[in-house]
Amino acid sequence: NAGVTQTPKFQVLKTGQSMTLQCAQDMNHEYMSWYRQDPGMGLRLIHYSVGAGITDQGEVPNGYNVSRSTTEDFPLRLLSAAPSQTSVYFCASSRLAGQSSYNEQFFGPGTRLTVL
Amino acid sequence: AQSVTQPDIHITVSEGASLELRCNYSYGATPYLFWYVQSPGQGLQLLLKYFSGDTLVQGIKGFEAEFKRSQSSFNLRKPSVHWSDAAEYFCAVALGAGSYQLTFGKGTKLSVIP
Questions:
Q1: B31/B35 Cα distance (integer angstroms)
Q2: Hey, is A112 helix, strand or coil?
Q3: What letter does residue A100 receive in the DSSP assignment?
Q4: pLDDT in tens, A68-113
Q5: Sequence-separated (6 or more) residues with CB below 8 Å from residue B53
Q6: Nearest residue of B to residue A30 by CA position?
Q7: What does the alpha-carbon distance between residue B47 and residue B36 come to, in Å, rounded to a whole number?
Q8: How far away is chain B from the Cα of A52, in angstroms, using its nearest Cα?
Protein backbone atom coordinates (compact mmCIF):
# COMPACT_ATOMS: atom_id res chain seq x y z
CA ASN A 1 0.00 0.00 0.00
CA ALA A 2 1.90 3.04 -1.27
CA GLY A 3 -0.70 5.60 -0.19
CA VAL A 4 -0.60 8.82 -2.21
CA THR A 5 2.28 9.12 -4.66
CA GLN A 6 3.33 12.15 -6.66
CA THR A 7 5.73 12.50 -9.56
CA PRO A 8 8.02 14.17 -10.23
CA LYS A 9 9.50 15.33 -6.93
CA PHE A 10 11.21 18.31 -8.53
CA GLN A 11 10.66 20.10 -11.83
CA VAL A 12 12.04 23.23 -13.46
CA LEU A 13 10.11 24.77 -16.33
CA LYS A 14 10.54 27.78 -18.54
CA THR A 15 7.75 30.29 -18.86
CA GLY A 16 5.19 29.09 -21.38
CA GLN A 17 6.04 25.40 -21.14
CA SER A 18 3.39 22.88 -20.28
CA MET A 19 3.57 19.91 -18.00
CA THR A 20 1.50 17.47 -15.98
CA LEU A 21 1.98 16.71 -12.32
CA GLN A 22 0.99 13.15 -11.56
CA CYS A 23 -0.91 11.97 -8.50
CA ALA A 24 -2.00 8.43 -7.77
CA GLN A 25 -3.51 6.66 -4.79
CA ASP A 26 -4.04 2.98 -4.15
CA MET A 27 -6.55 3.27 -1.32
CA ASN A 28 -9.66 3.36 -3.52
CA HIS A 29 -10.44 6.87 -2.29
CA GLU A 30 -13.23 8.70 -4.03
CA TYR A 31 -12.08 12.20 -3.09
CA MET A 32 -8.85 13.66 -4.46
CA SER A 33 -7.55 17.20 -4.46
CA TRP A 34 -4.64 19.43 -5.35
CA TYR A 35 -3.18 22.15 -3.14
CA ARG A 36 -0.37 24.57 -3.65
CA GLN A 37 1.84 25.72 -0.81
CA ASP A 38 3.59 29.07 -0.90
CA PRO A 39 5.75 30.59 1.85
CA GLY A 40 3.62 32.38 4.40
CA MET A 41 0.41 31.37 2.64
CA GLY A 42 -0.33 27.90 3.96
CA LEU A 43 -1.98 25.49 1.54
CA ARG A 44 -4.61 26.64 -0.94
CA LEU A 45 -6.98 24.37 -2.79
CA ILE A 46 -6.63 24.36 -6.59
CA HIS A 47 -9.06 21.68 -7.82
CA TYR A 48 -10.79 18.66 -6.39
CA SER A 49 -12.73 15.61 -7.47
CA VAL A 50 -15.33 13.45 -5.72
CA GLY A 51 -15.08 10.62 -8.20
CA ALA A 52 -14.17 9.59 -11.71
CA GLY A 53 -15.51 12.09 -14.22
CA ILE A 54 -16.33 14.73 -11.58
CA THR A 55 -14.08 17.71 -10.90
CA ASP A 56 -14.58 21.17 -9.47
CA GLN A 57 -12.62 24.32 -8.78
CA GLY A 58 -11.10 25.30 -5.48
CA GLU A 59 -9.79 28.63 -4.26
CA VAL A 60 -7.02 29.18 -6.86
CA PRO A 61 -7.91 27.29 -10.08
CA ASN A 62 -6.66 29.74 -12.71
CA GLY A 63 -3.87 28.37 -14.88
CA TYR A 64 -4.54 24.74 -13.97
CA ASN A 65 -6.61 21.96 -15.50
CA VAL A 66 -7.56 18.60 -14.06
CA SER A 67 -9.36 15.48 -15.15
CA ARG A 68 -10.34 12.29 -13.37
CA SER A 69 -10.69 9.35 -15.71
CA THR A 70 -9.99 6.71 -13.07
CA THR A 71 -10.43 6.46 -9.31
CA GLU A 72 -6.68 6.09 -8.81
CA ASP A 73 -5.28 9.03 -10.78
CA PHE A 74 -5.79 12.78 -10.62
CA PRO A 75 -3.25 14.64 -12.79
CA LEU A 76 -2.79 18.40 -12.63
CA ARG A 77 -1.94 20.16 -15.89
CA LEU A 78 -0.21 23.47 -16.37
CA LEU A 79 -0.91 24.49 -19.97
CA SER A 80 1.39 27.54 -20.07
CA ALA A 81 3.56 27.83 -16.99
CA ALA A 82 4.13 31.21 -15.39
CA PRO A 83 6.61 32.26 -12.69
CA SER A 84 3.65 32.82 -10.35
CA GLN A 85 3.08 29.07 -10.44
CA THR A 86 6.40 28.41 -8.73
CA SER A 87 5.27 26.51 -5.67
CA VAL A 88 5.11 23.17 -3.90
CA TYR A 89 2.14 21.12 -5.01
CA PHE A 90 0.43 18.56 -2.81
CA CYS A 91 -2.11 15.96 -3.77
CA ALA A 92 -4.49 14.53 -1.16
CA SER A 93 -7.14 11.84 -1.06
CA SER A 94 -9.79 10.47 1.26
CA ARG A 95 -12.82 8.26 1.39
CA LEU A 96 -16.13 10.01 1.01
CA ALA A 97 -18.14 9.85 4.21
CA GLY A 98 -21.77 10.24 5.02
CA GLN A 99 -23.39 13.48 5.97
CA SER A 100 -22.63 12.95 9.64
CA SER A 101 -18.97 12.08 9.48
CA TYR A 102 -15.67 12.98 7.94
CA ASN A 103 -12.71 10.98 6.76
CA GLU A 104 -9.07 11.93 7.10
CA GLN A 105 -7.30 13.27 4.03
CA PHE A 106 -3.94 11.69 3.22
CA PHE A 107 -1.31 13.85 1.58
CA GLY A 108 1.37 12.95 -0.91
CA PRO A 109 5.01 14.00 -0.49
CA GLY A 110 4.71 16.97 -2.84
CA THR A 111 6.18 18.23 -6.10
CA ARG A 112 8.46 21.26 -6.00
CA LEU A 113 7.98 23.27 -9.19
CA THR A 114 10.10 26.20 -10.31
CA VAL A 115 9.09 28.28 -13.32
CA LEU A 116 11.84 30.48 -14.73
CA ALA B 1 -16.13 32.46 3.75
CA GLN B 2 -14.38 30.64 6.53
CA SER B 3 -10.86 31.63 7.52
CA VAL B 4 -8.15 30.32 9.80
CA THR B 5 -5.65 32.48 11.64
CA GLN B 6 -2.41 31.30 13.15
CA PRO B 7 -1.04 34.43 14.80
CA ASP B 8 2.48 33.13 15.36
CA ILE B 9 4.65 32.74 12.29
CA HIS B 10 7.65 31.33 14.14
CA ILE B 11 8.05 30.04 17.69
CA THR B 12 11.25 28.90 19.37
CA VAL B 13 11.18 26.77 22.50
CA SER B 14 13.76 24.86 24.50
CA GLU B 15 13.66 21.10 24.51
CA GLY B 16 11.58 19.93 27.46
CA ALA B 17 9.56 23.13 27.63
CA SER B 18 5.83 23.22 27.10
CA LEU B 19 4.30 24.37 23.83
CA GLU B 20 1.09 26.04 22.78
CA LEU B 21 0.34 26.94 19.17
CA ARG B 22 -2.62 29.19 18.58
CA CYS B 23 -5.37 28.81 16.03
CA ASN B 24 -8.52 30.88 15.57
CA TYR B 25 -11.19 30.29 12.99
CA SER B 26 -13.95 32.37 11.56
CA TYR B 27 -17.10 30.51 10.65
CA GLY B 28 -20.76 30.75 11.59
CA ALA B 29 -21.07 27.20 12.84
CA THR B 30 -18.63 24.79 14.41
CA PRO B 31 -16.44 23.45 11.64
CA TYR B 32 -14.38 20.33 11.66
CA LEU B 33 -10.95 21.28 13.01
CA PHE B 34 -7.57 19.77 12.32
CA TRP B 35 -3.92 20.15 13.13
CA TYR B 36 -1.33 18.92 10.63
CA VAL B 37 2.45 18.76 10.95
CA GLN B 38 4.91 19.10 8.10
CA SER B 39 8.52 18.10 8.60
CA PRO B 40 11.08 19.69 6.27
CA GLY B 41 10.71 18.38 2.74
CA GLN B 42 7.80 16.16 3.69
CA GLY B 43 4.08 16.04 3.13
CA LEU B 44 1.48 16.75 5.79
CA GLN B 45 0.62 14.37 8.60
CA LEU B 46 -2.57 14.62 10.62
CA LEU B 47 -1.88 15.18 14.33
CA LEU B 48 -5.45 15.32 15.58
CA LYS B 49 -8.96 16.36 14.72
CA TYR B 50 -12.13 17.65 16.38
CA PHE B 51 -15.60 16.97 15.11
CA SER B 52 -17.79 17.09 18.18
CA GLY B 53 -18.01 15.87 21.76
CA ASP B 54 -15.19 16.22 24.27
CA THR B 55 -13.49 19.53 23.62
CA LEU B 56 -10.06 18.22 24.60
CA VAL B 57 -8.74 15.88 21.93
CA GLN B 58 -5.65 13.75 22.03
CA GLY B 59 -3.48 13.18 19.01
CA ILE B 60 -0.34 11.42 17.98
CA LYS B 61 3.16 12.21 19.23
CA GLY B 62 1.86 13.43 22.60
CA PHE B 63 -0.06 16.42 21.22
CA GLU B 64 -3.45 17.57 22.37
CA ALA B 65 -5.76 20.40 21.38
CA GLU B 66 -8.65 22.13 23.06
CA PHE B 67 -11.67 23.49 21.24
CA LYS B 68 -13.13 26.63 22.80
CA ARG B 69 -16.32 27.68 21.10
CA SER B 70 -16.55 31.01 22.92
CA GLN B 71 -13.13 32.00 21.62
CA SER B 72 -13.38 30.30 18.21
CA SER B 73 -10.06 28.71 19.01
CA PHE B 74 -8.43 25.33 18.64
CA ASN B 75 -5.00 25.62 20.24
CA LEU B 76 -2.43 22.85 20.04
CA ARG B 77 -0.42 21.92 23.12
CA LYS B 78 2.35 19.62 24.18
CA PRO B 79 3.64 19.44 27.76
CA SER B 80 7.27 18.68 26.89
CA VAL B 81 8.75 19.36 23.46
CA HIS B 82 11.32 17.08 21.87
CA TRP B 83 13.90 18.15 19.31
CA SER B 84 12.12 15.99 16.74
CA ASP B 85 9.02 18.19 17.05
CA ALA B 86 10.75 20.94 15.07
CA ALA B 87 8.51 21.34 12.02
CA GLU B 88 5.79 23.52 10.61
CA TYR B 89 2.31 23.17 12.04
CA PHE B 90 -0.90 23.95 10.20
CA CYS B 91 -4.36 24.41 11.58
CA ALA B 92 -7.16 23.65 9.14
CA VAL B 93 -10.94 23.66 9.02
CA ALA B 94 -13.56 21.92 6.95
CA LEU B 95 -17.09 23.24 6.82
CA GLY B 96 -18.53 20.02 8.15
CA ALA B 97 -19.82 16.64 7.22
CA GLY B 98 -19.90 16.14 3.49
CA SER B 99 -17.42 18.97 2.88
CA TYR B 100 -13.90 17.92 2.08
CA GLN B 101 -12.39 21.24 1.18
CA LEU B 102 -9.83 22.19 3.81
CA THR B 103 -9.00 25.81 4.57
CA PHE B 104 -5.54 26.08 6.08
CA GLY B 105 -3.91 28.66 8.26
CA LYS B 106 -0.59 30.08 7.14
CA GLY B 107 1.34 27.85 9.48
CA THR B 108 3.58 28.21 12.51
CA LYS B 109 7.18 27.15 12.25
CA LEU B 110 8.50 25.57 15.44
CA SER B 111 12.19 25.61 16.25
CA VAL B 112 13.51 23.62 19.21
CA ILE B 113 16.67 24.61 21.07
CA PRO B 114 18.56 21.59 22.43
A1: 13
A2: strand
A3: T
A4: 999 999 999 999 999 999 999 999 999 887 655 667 889 999 999 9
A5: none
A6: B100
A7: 5
A8: 16
